[in-house]
Amino acid sequence: MKKIAVDAMGGDFAPQSVVEGVEKARNKYPDLRFMLFGDEQKIREILTSDKNIEIIQTTEVIDMNDEPVKAIRRKKDSSLVRAAYAVKEGKADALFSCGNTGALLAAGLLIVGRIKGITRPGLLSTLPVLTKEGGAFNLLDSGANADNKPEQLYQYALLGKYYAESVRNIKNPRIGLLNNGTEPHKGSKLTLEAHNLIAADSSINFVGNVESKDILKGVCDVVVADGFTGNAVLKAIEGTAGTAMHLLKDTIMSAGLLGKIGGLLLKPSIMKIRNKMSASQYGGAVLLGAKAPVVKAHGASDAETVYYTVKQINDMLENDMLSKFTDYFNKNV
Amino acid sequence: MKKIAVDAMGGDFAPQSVVEGVEKARNKYPDLRFMLFGDEQKIREILTSDKNIEIIQTTEVIDMNDEPVKAIRRKKDSSLVRAAYAVKEGKADALFSCGNTGALLAAGLLIVGRIKGITRPGLLSTLPVLTKEGGAFNLLDSGANADNKPEQLYQYALLGKYYAESVRNIKNPRIGLLNNGTEPHKGSKLTLEAHNLIAADSSINFVGNVESKDILKGVCDVVVADGFTGNAVLKAIEGTAGTAMHLLKDTIMSAGLLGKIGGLLLKPSIMKIRNKMSASQYGGAVLLGAKAPVVKAHGASDAETVYYTVKQINDMLENDMLSKFTDYFNKNV
């Protein structure tokens, strides 16, 4: 029986979408338990049944404008900080929030804490492989760090491997290193050193360097990057996809009658593309290297996204991903 | 009267598209002169008139698989190396190729040479602002370097400013620094230092940090980045746009009869988006910081792209961009 500590107040549509998504997940996964941290009255207005759900009243909320580390230190009775302490104290097995990303990362690092041997936990995101039905890849670190060292990129290769095995059920996942060219001799000082470290570990199915133009085509299952570049690439992909969809919509709307009819006939197809590109079914971003799953879903998450993210957390807990991490790093570092 | 040294053999459709594009530009710009380096016989098979065009016979070609620096050193009679020497020796004012990017960069750095005071020239690319008709922005460095220092990013801010003023006729162009957040306190060691250097120069219209998700929306005219991140972002944007267009096409093709009719009715609109996203009318990538314009058009360039790239080179020469660079850096460095 595993328990998830949920920041019920984080996110644009909180607590509504969080509570609805949690209830849906509760109905699907009878072995899961939930601790909902937040404004009890507001939560109860939405909650239909408190089966397997415990509500913990908190009085503060960390919002999107709060400076992360400061907020974690000062808002001691916030839904996020209280949820993080529940994990730290062993009352819950995972931390989940749709709120301020920086604050969640800070709570993960400073309250939940790092696995011994992992110097800089990294944020793992899941993105769609656009050319393959249902395909996906992970990008790690997608932004927990602004500066990384080669050894940390090597650790991301290992963390990403265990994640892909545990949660995505991929045997021997293909690990690629994000670089400015595919040839082994190409790269920055950082990627050249990281390349050698990863290549030297025969337990990793290393496919070598990958370029950002190819990752959406599924050239590997896990893309390892430093947090600065990973973040820039993630946001470039999201920005381009979002802008392209807007452009398509605007173009159809201003295309005259025939164009509008065309748009109408194509609507189901365009919705299919939109869904493929949308993040909701791929779950949340995971801070890998923390002592427990620390998971962030998008601020604009609806109940569906919350549900899928709980499913993802359940996969991590069911397959005991954290024990695999700690076993490995306690033995090897 | 300005002269452009053209590598007529570089690119997927060379010399055909190169010669056709040059002739079109020759007809448009009577003050320009061209030196076409390559296989004279092949060039003459395409050339309709040699007015203002001189052909220089060369016997070697650097292809896409050649290792750049090695190729520059060994293939002394290649069309690219001979064209670069023409610039170095003052016989031509600019270097243009659609061939191997690395080799062109190496020729720019090692043969044409750097402007005094500029330690690491950067590659400037032009991308479309998707939300604004005809809008565009520059990204610099988009991949000439794998590792950059803060002072170099500051130099890119200056080089980008002069470029936008000279070629794009933008008064007081808005310069942004690519970063992992817009707040001034965010960033890597590199971007934090670069931010301070750029912000301290009151001659620069610095709009602060920009994120890769916003640059396609035109938040600034010039995006300054280190070459590794700039390259990753450029390729992520190109990869996402390309994959999205493919996905749209595939979805229409498999959408059944109504969907296909819809696709047909929408075809003009979709072509409009494609054109907006396509690189051809935005010209080539420019190695800024070299002693003369060193310009690379896409390997798959058609005659139209070659024509637009010559127009872009003409703008740089007409507005004497290089003198502005050298005046500034000779005075200030």
Question: Would you give an account of this structure?
Answer:
Two copies of one chain form a homodimer. With 333 residues, the first copy, chain A, is an alpha/beta fold. Chain A has two domains: 163 residues, 3-Layer(aba) Sandwich (Isopropylmalate Dehydrogenase); 155 residues, Isopropylmalate Dehydrogenase. Helix content of chain A is 47%, strand content 17%. Chain A contains eleven helices and eleven strands. Chain A has an eleven-stranded mixed beta sheet with strand order 3-2-1-4-11-10-5-6-9-7-8, sandwiched between helices. In chain A, strand 5 and strand 6 form a beta hairpin. In chain A, helix 3 crosses helix 5 and helix 6 crosses helix 7. Chain A is globular and about 60 Å long. The two termini of chain A are 31 Å apart. The interface between A and B is large, with 57 and 57 residues.
